[in-house]
Design a protein that fits this description.
The protein has 162 residues and is an alpha+beta fold. It has 2 domains: 128 residues, Histidine kinase-like ATPase, C-terminal domain (Heat Shock Protein 90), CATH 3.30.565.10; 30 residues. Helices cover 52% and strands 22% of the residues. A 5-stranded antiparallel β-sheet has the order 1-2-3-5-4, covered by helices on one side. Strand 4 and strand 5 form a beta hairpin. Helix 1 packs antiparallel against helix 2. The radius of gyration is 22 Å and the shape is elongated. The termini are far apart. The mean pLDDT is 79.
C-alpha cells in the first residue's frame, strides 16, 4: 500500500472552506461515498471547532490537520499550534477540569461519527480514524444480492411460461 500524507494549516475559524476542500479532495481521491464523506466532514469540522473554542485564551493559534492513509483507514490528526510556544505551559487543576467538562459535552457527535478517536490529555490534539476497508465488502454484498434477485426473477418468469 502506498503511503499518502497531506497537511493543511488553518489560521482561524473563518478558514473552514479550506478544510472542506481538503476533505473533499481526499474523499474524491479514495472514492468515498457521500454518506461517509458527510461523517468525515462533520467530525473533522467539529474537532477543529472544539480545539479553537477550548483553547480560546491562546494567542496566535493555528490548527494543523494532517491526513494519513494507513492499514486501518483514513487518519486525521488535528493539532493546535501556537506561534512562539515550544513547551507546554503548566496548567492548574481548575483549567484541566474545565477542559475535561467542555470536551465531554462537545465530543459526543465526533465519537458517533468516527470509528476511533484519541484526545490528548491537554486538549491540544484530536486524532480521528475512519475505517474504509469494509466499504468494498458492503458494495460487494449489495451487488451479490442484486444478482440473486435478478436470477430468482428470471427463474420465476421461465416457470410461469411453462
Amino acid at each position: 500500500m502506498n503511503k499518502d500524507y497531506r497537511e493543511l494549516l488553518i489560521n482561524g475559524k473563518g478558514e473552514s472552506v479550506k478544510l472542506e476542500r481538503f476533505i473533499e479532495e481526499i474523499c474524491d481521491f479514495y472514492n468515498i461515498n457521500n454518506e461517509y464523506f458527510g461523517n468525515i466532514l462533520l467530525a473533522t469540522t467539529e474537532a477543529v471547532e472544539i480545539l479553537f473554542s477550548i483553547n480560546n485564551e491562546e494567542k496566535n493559534k493555528k490548527i494543523s490537520i494532517q491526513f494519513d492513509r494507513n492499514a486501518k483507514g483514513l487518519v486525521f490528526k488535528i493539532r493546535l499550534k501556537i506561534d512562539g510556544e515550544e513547551s507546554e505551559r503548566e496548567e492548574d487543576i481548575l483549567d484541566r477540569e474545565v477542559r475535561k467538562h467542555k470536551l465531554a459535552k462537545d465530543i459526543f457527535i465526533i465519537k458517533s461519527l468516527t470509528d476511533e478517536i484519541t484526545i490528548s490529555v491537554n486538549a491540544k490534539s484530536i486524532i480521528l480514524v475512519f475505517y474504509v476497508s469494509s466499504m468494498n465488502y458492503e458494495k460487494s454484498l449489495f451487488r451479490i444480492n442484486k444478482l440473486k434477485e435478478y436470477w430468482h426473477s428470471e427463474v420465476d418468469v421461465k416457470q410461469k411460461k411453462l
